[in-house]
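pinning this so it doesn't scroll away 📌
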Amino acid sequence: MSTQRLNVTVPDDVSDILKTKKNKSEFLAEAVREKAINDKKKEIMEKARKLRKYYDSDVDLTSLNSLDSQDFVD
């Protein structure tokens, strides 16, 4: 995997956390990936909630019936 060197500024509390990590780059990369995944899940859930009224009012629409299940979130 190719890498890029970045220069970033972080608040003191984040800097204190990073000081305790042996591999800061790996820790930051994993944190950014996890945040991106969580943001995408939130975006999908928000869009699904907006569509829910249509699925609730039309029995022929079934794609979003399992949105409340834990499997959808995982």
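📌 and the second one:
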Amino acid sequence: MNLVQQIKEIFWQTPSDLKKIRRLLMMRKFTKDELAELAVGFVGNCFGEYRDALNPEFKFITIENMHSNYVVEAIDLLLEFGLDPNTIVHDENVLWNTKWIDAPNVAASVMRLLLENGGDPNHFIPAEFETLFENITYKVSRDEQENDYLYTVRCWLLLMAYGGCWRIGKIPITMLNGKSVEIFKEFELYDYGIEYLPQESGKYGYWILHIFNIKTKEEVARYG
């Protein structure tokens, strides 16, 4: 069994032995593709995990033994050994796959770590025909009734804080009271409210998304 496969098997376990993984990573120089494959694989272990942990019929997973509990530490470890957040492997990329982590705020926490280490908020995968920012923006505009909408919104705000934008260089939200979009690097501080409008308003989607500071209740941005 090669080292990549050994690390994958340890990542699959809960909890993963990150100290053992570190020792394996130190044994040789891993390529960017190998590190990207490990990152994509580990993040993949977190897909739908929180939903399953809340389902009493799924006895094999609990909140306490989710991969999502230490995915930030695992990705940080791979970054330490040279992970490039922008590498595409088998038409997949860890930045993109992060959006499917459904545990509260974990997706945005992993995404922030990747963006802080060179991740491109406007990352483009040819097979997707759109940028990561465009993809998340579409989810924000369409999925307002989903249970994980807050975490989608926070990923979206985070991408804008690190330079995510339309291809013409503009962002789709209006910042208020002189605030900079960079405030959303601390995504945990913000929540949203939806104002539904009558259809005759002419507003796309018939709603407005109000972004506000949780502590002060100040509205800092608006979408729609």
